[in-house]
Design brief:
mainly alpha; 4 helices; 0% strand; 135 residues
């Protein structure tokens, strides 16, 4: 019996090699993906719609809730000042005429990390993140 080898790619992979992606369980939102030798993922322009008056009100209310919970649960937080500074930074960015998505995302990520020890605060920051990401 003779063994027929498949032609190899420059990376040493054979043509029939599986270069797929596997995921098990959980929830996933996936943007552009490219898998395999020489693959490219290209994105067109992304348009962000300005929030409606109702969305702005919801976000303002959630910011106030997070601020109140930061004060109420101050003793349970390992760092009392950093979360407040992050909330100010987020509020200023959201109030900006052209908020930068990266700045907003990083501020929300840091607030999420700060809020972890306090369940009500973590829930409020989660709601705020969802509201901000909806527009």
């Amino acid at each position: 019996m003779t063994h027929q080898s498949r032609p190899s790619s420059p990376e040493g992979l054979s043509q029939g090699d599986n270069l797929g992606v596997q995921q098990y369980g959980g929830h996933s939102q996936v943007g552009n993906q490219a898998v395999g030798s020489g693959a490219q993922a290209l994105a067109g322009q992304v348009f962000v719609q300005a929030p409606t008056a109702d969305q702005r009100t919801q976000i303002r209310d959630l910011l106030a809730l997070v601020e109140r919970l930061l004060e109420e649960h101050r003793a349970a937080l390992p760092d009392q000042e950093a979360p407040r500074a992050e909330l100010r930074r987020l509020r200023e960015e959201l109030d900006d005429e052209d908020p930068q998505p990266g700045v907003v995302r990083r501020a929300l990520d840091r607030l999420t990390a700060f809020a972890q020890p306090v369940a009500p605060l973590a829930a409020a920051v989660g709601e705020l993140s969802q509201a901000v990401q909806s527009f």
